[in-house]
Amino acid sequence: MPFRTTVSAPTSGTPVTHDLDLSEDYESLVMDACDLLGETDCRFHVAGFGQDPWPVNVSYDLSSVIEQLPRARASLRRRDRAQIDFYGQGIERVITFAPAGDRITLTCTSRTGWIPDPATETARRSDIEHMLATLARDFRRAFDRACADVAAREHLASWGSDGRW
Questions:
Q1: From the centroid of its chain, how far is CA 10?
Q2: Phi and psi of 137, rounded to 5°?
């Protein structure tokens, strides 16, 4: 089963009520956004390396992925090696992306007793870049749907809109 990760927007258009004093640094914003999304029926799905679904959640695990996403995407655009660390307790896995031409070798390393099967797979570079771009876009859409007032704030208005962060 090939590695994949998706996020689905909340089904309700009812905004999440909050009293957050949002920070302006990226990591804190991601944590706040995922905390708010965690109060909805937003879903984060990860599968691959022999397990579908992975035991991930929105408030912590999605936050950890989204905070690493800009760096990983930038590395892959440069055709450099990248990693996304699912460091949450109980999941504790690292996906390493190693580009080689138009292919990427993905390696899953577990820091628990779970054993990936298989531990490596290859995919087209364009497919991986598309998956990560879609994850970024869908995260932004989920955030817009759940917290339009927060998403519209000046320092967040362009967040993810160019598909490159």
A1: 16
A2: -60, -45
Is the preceding peptide bond at 70 cis, omega within 30 degrees of 0? no
How far is the first Cα of the chain from the last one, in angstroms, to the nearest whole number?
Answer: 27
What residues form DSSP beta bridges with 86?
A: 93
For 148-157, the CB contacts below 8 A with 24+ separation are 148/15, 149/15, 150/18, 150/20, 150/22, 150/32, 150/33, 150/36, 153/22, 155/24, 155/29, 156/29
How far is residue 144's CA from residue 152's CA, in Å, rounded to a whole number? 8
Please name the helix (run of DSSP H) or strand (run of DSSP E) that holds residue 107, with its range, or none. strand 103-110
**pLDDT for 78-90, tens place per residue?**
999 999 999 999 9
pLDDT range class, residue 153, cuts 50, 70, 90 = low
* pLDDT class of 140 with cuts at 50, 70, 90: confident
> What's the sign of the alpha-carbon dihedral 10, 14, 19, 21?
positive
